[in-house]
Structures are given as structure tokens and as C-alpha cells.
Amino acid sequence: MPARPPIPDPVPDPGPPSAFRTERDSLGEVAVPSAAYWGAQTARAVANFPVSGLGPHPAFVRAMVQIKRAAALANMETGRLPRDVGLAIVRAAEEALAQIPPVPLAGAPGPALPGAPRLADQWVVDPYQAGAGTSHNMNTNEVLANRAAELLGGRRGEYRRVHPNDHVNMAQSTNDTVPTAIRLIGLDLGTRLVRTLARCANAFQDRAVAFDGILKTGRTHLQDAVPIRLGQEFAAYARTVERGARRIAQSLEPLREIGLGGTAVGTGLNAEPAYITAAARHLGAATGHALRPAADMRQAMQSMGDVAGLSGACRALALDLGKIASDLRLLASGPRTGLGEIVLPAVQPGSSIMPGKVNPVLCEMLNMVCLQALGHDHTIAAASEAGQLELNVMMPVIAHNLAWMLTILEGGVAAFTARCVRGIEADPERCRYWLERSAALSTALAPRIGYDAAAALTKDMLRTGRGIAELALERGLLERDDLEAILEPEAMTSPGVPGGRGEGRPGG
Predict the structure, then answer these.
(1) pLDDT at 111
(2) CA-CA distance, 144 to 173, in Å (whole number)?
(3) Residue from 117, 444, 172 nearest 297 by CA
(4) 41, 357, 427, 438: which has the highest count of C-beta atoms within 10 A?
(5) Cis peptide leading into 335, omega within 30 of 0?
(6) What's the whole-model pTM score?
(7) Which one, of 240, 239, 402, lies nearest residue 309 by Cα?
(8) Is 442 a catalytic residue?
(9) For the chain, give me the number of helices (H) and strands (E)?
(10) Least trusted range by pLDDT, from 193-207, 233-247, 255-269, 443-457
């Protein structure tokens, strides 16, 4: 059997010599763009994984840079890392962090520290890359090493003073830094989402108060049901969003336990105990999160269960938000041939062919966000199960999907709240119109005349078009005063038996 020919080097033609420098890694020489702060291993990853054309999420980049900064500070404390090298790494990390917004569009990136070069665009590895995230880790190591070397008077691509592995990656492995970065992504973006959800819940509650006196027909199975106040519907939406925020906040707590210092398989090889505690302390101080070393570094490396827990809470939120957005579209349907009980803010023309048409675009947007979030959650769940033994090699796709799920939920809810919920108005006349024609008013009569008699009244009401009270009087089922008390719609919106003992007070 003939020998298999060697696989050609994946790095593309380097072009003119002046545009590239030559670096060497364990596999040989690699051409690297002269202007790049990344190096040989990043160059190989760029060539090997031209998959999506996407770059890493900014939150993933920030998290890894924060970890490298904390590690350098901790390694200086233990005395392993020379102070001049450590300070240069810290300075390079701070320059990068000043330029990288926590989420896309959160702010225009640009050098914020005096004399800093542009570093924000130096993370170039596709999200779909080698398992575990080694390429992303090395991209970070190389960028910070090259910038730190410059700060010490060296040149990019010469790693004598600051080495990506020996110095920037000291006491670390991809296998403990990437899981820690994923936890930071969850904490950073999850906290933002919880705050945004609180504003959304408050906006729904404001509308609930404004609409509390408006009576309308309830609907179940998209059929007439007993009366409800429009404010009660919106109060339920507020409560749903608030509960979703609470579930997400609770799911963030386990993420504060980090496995940084576990290194290759969670045993802590090449990481002193003092480094492990110091790295968590420095990382917590920089991020504002109360972090602590994992009780079991091996468990923290093997399991993505805590991350899947956050994703699952976001899945539940997406299901609820999607339902609310669809409800609002239905309640606002019309304006002449739908329910039309509420009026959504008109934020843009709705049709390229039908003049004057206005669509529920913010609700539609949120529906799409929620559908995409469900896809992100499915990927995270499948990837969380796909690890083997001491490591989950699917971490890059987990990081990518978690970051984008949290990003689009936060951005979608923020826009939905500001441009839709806060501006919703009610149409009380339309609500009353449908209420007066509801076939479910006979429900209030059932405790007095029985279910079967009430059902017969409902059938006759629908067949003849006559009112329920008129039919009940004609048959001598109840006196007029009793009927008026029982069929008072507002009394039907609180616990109790309308017109009888134990009726509830409006406002419940």
C-alpha cells in the first residue's frame, strides 16, 4: 500500500516578502502578515478554518483577555513571572480591553489608552475551529505577547522577551481558560439581560396600571371566555417577564465557581495553589463578579451543566417572550377586521404596496429573536453532552451560541420595551364591543341556574343573536335585579360568585 503523501501546508501564498514575516512553531515555518499582532498558530487556524466568515463574539475576546491579565498578576505574585514581563502583559491586556466593547454596537471600538495600537480587530479565528478552543486561546496569547514585547522594546514575531506559551499562558491551559471564559460570558451578558428584563417587566406593569379599568372578553382556545380586565392581562405579562429574569439570575450563581488553575485535566499541574486563589481574586476584582475557585477543578472542566442551566433558563424566557409577542400581535390585529383591542406604536410603514399599512414590527422582531434563541439553546444542549472524559471539546460552539443568545435576547427585549411596550395604548370601545357580544357571559349564571341551563342559554344566544339576560328573563330563570348583579362584567374579574355570597371585590 503506497504511503500517503504529506498534507500540504495550509497557509496561503505569503505574497511580497515585505508584507509578511516568517514565524516558526512546532510544525515548521509559517508566513504571518507583518502588521498582525497574532502569530503562527493563529495563522494556521485562519487557513484551516475558513468556515463562516464570522469572528469571535466580543464577549469571548474580552473574557479571555481578562483571564490573561488576571493570570499575569497572579504569576507575578507567586514570583514565577518576571515583573517587567508581567506588567507588559497586563498593559497589553488593558489596551485591548479598552478597545473591545462587551457586545456588538455597545460602543465604537478605538484606542482609549495613550499610544495604544489598534488591537480590537486582531482576534480572527472562526467560531467553528479546533476543539476546546485552543486556536482562540493561542490567538489571545500571541496578540498579548507581541504587544507586550513591543512595550519592552522588542518587535512582533520575536518571542525572546515575551513568549505566548511560556509567559502569557503561564500556569494555564486552553482546557481551564476557555471554560472560565464561557462562565464570564454568562455572567457578563446574563447580568445585562436580567437588568433589561426588569425594565421590560416594569413597562408591562405600567401599562397594567393604566389599563386596569378596561373590561374586555377573555379568550381561551381563541374562543370567547369570561371577562377579564385588560390591566390583568398586562399584569400577567409583567409577572411572566419578572419570573423569567429571576430564573436567569438564579442560573448565574453557579457560574461564579471557576476552574481556572485546573490546567490540562483539572489536576492543577504546573499551577501553584497560591496562583489559583490569586487568579480568581484578580479576575473577580476586574470583572466585578464574586468569583471563587471551583470545589472540584476536574468537575468544572468536564461538565458544561452550569452553562446548560443558564441556556435552559433563556430557553424558558424565549418561549414566554415569543408567546407574549404573539399575543400582542393578535390583540392589535386589524385595524378594522381584527380584534383591535390595543394599538401598538407605529414605528415604520408596513408595506411596500399597501399604502398606510402599519405592521407590528417590534413584536415580529422579538418572535424571530426568540426562535433564534431556541436554536442557540439546542446547540448548547447538544454540545454540552458531547464532551468526553476530562474535557468538552465542543466549547467553542458553546461559547459562540451562549454569547449570541444572550446578546440578541438583551438587544431584542431592550428595543421591544422602548419602542413597543411603553407606547401601547388601549381601545376601550373596541374592548367593550367584543365583551358585550361574548358567548361566555352565561358562565356567571351557572352557579345559580346550573351548567346545563346556562349552556342552553348560550346556544340560543348564538342562534338568535339575542342577549343572555333577555333570554333568561323570558324563561323566568332569574329576576332582573339578580341578573344585573350576576352579569356585571367587573364582578366577574375577581374571585367569588357574582351576585351571591363570597363574591370578590374588583381589583383582585
Answers:
(1) 56
(2) 16
(3) 172
(4) 41
(5) yes
(6) 0.92
(7) 402
(8) no
(9) 16, 8
(10) 443-457
In a domain, 308, yes or no: yes
Residue 24 falls inside a structural domain: yes
Whole-angstrom Cα distance, residue 409 to residue 318?
A: 8
pLDDT for 507 equals 37
Which cell goes with 231? 390591566
Q: How many domains does the structure of the chain reveal?
A: 3
Closest CA to 162 of 98, 93, 82: 82
Residue whose grid cell is 515555518: 29
C-alpha 112/C-alpha 62 separation (Å) is 15
What is the Cα Rg of the chain in Å?
31
Q: Is 134 helix (H, G, I), strand (E, B) or coil?
A: helix
Report the chain's mean pLDDT, rounded to a whole number.
92
**Domain carrying residue 128:** 17-170
* HSE toward the beta carbon, residue 297, CA cutoff 13 A: 22
Joined together, the cell numbers standing for residue 93 give 491586556
The three cell numbers of residue 247 are 430564573
> Catalytic: which of 351, 384, 438, 494?
351
What one-character-per-residue DSSP string does 240-260 give? Answer: HHHHHHHHHHHHHGGGGEE-T
Same domain, 315 and 195: yes
Per-residue DSSP letter, 123: -
| Grid coordinates of 11 | 497557509
Residues 26 and 154 in one domain: yes
Contact in structure between 244 and 317 (CB atoms under 8 Å)? yes
**24-34 pLDDT, tens per residue?**
999 999 999 99
DSSP code for 6: P
Q: Which of 130-139, 326-335, 462-471 has the lowest mean pLDDT?
A: 462-471
Residue 407 reports pLDDT greater than 90: yes
Q: 165 and 183 in one domain?
A: no
Q: What cell does 13 get?
A: 501564498
- Chain segment 104-123, per-residue pLDDT in tens: 866 556 556 788 899 999 99
What SS3 state is found at 68?
helix
Q: Is 79 found in the same domain as 181?
A: no
Instruction: Select the more confidently predicted residue: 155 or 484.
Output: 155
More confident residue, 487 or 183: 183
C-alpha cell at 316: 424558558
Q: Over range 304-312, report the average pLDDT.
A: 98
Distance from first CA to last CA of the chain, Å, rounded? 83
Residue 63 lies in a domain: yes
DSSP state of 2: P
Residue 283 is predicted with a pLDDT of 98
- Residues written for the chain: 508
Residues 309 and 251 in one domain: yes
Residues 225 and 312 occupy one common structural domain: yes
Cβ 67 vs Cβ 283: under 8 Å: yes
- DSSP annotation of 358 reads -
